[in-house]
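#lab-general

N.A. 3:47 PM
ok so I finally got the sequence cleaned up, no stray characters, all 65 residues accounted for. can someone with queue access submit it? mine expired

B.Y. 3:52 PM
send it over

N.A. 3:53 PM
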Amino acid sequence: MELRDVPAGEYEVVVWLPSWRVAKVERDPESGAVARWTMGAGLEQGTKVKVGQADVFVPDFIFKE
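B.Y. 4:20 PM
back already:
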C-alpha cells in the first residue's frame, strides 16, 4: 500500500489483520442451526514515523502468532 501526498509531520502507522479462527459458536435453541460465529481477535501492529518533505518511508511489519 502506498500513501501519497502526506503532509510533513509525525504519524502513527497501524496495520491490522483479521482473525479467521472461530472463538465462539451460538446455535438457535429450536433448530440447533448455527446462528452466529464470533471470530477471535485480530493482530495489530503500529509504529511511529516522521515524514519530511519528499520522504519515502517503508515500515516493516512482521506478524507472529
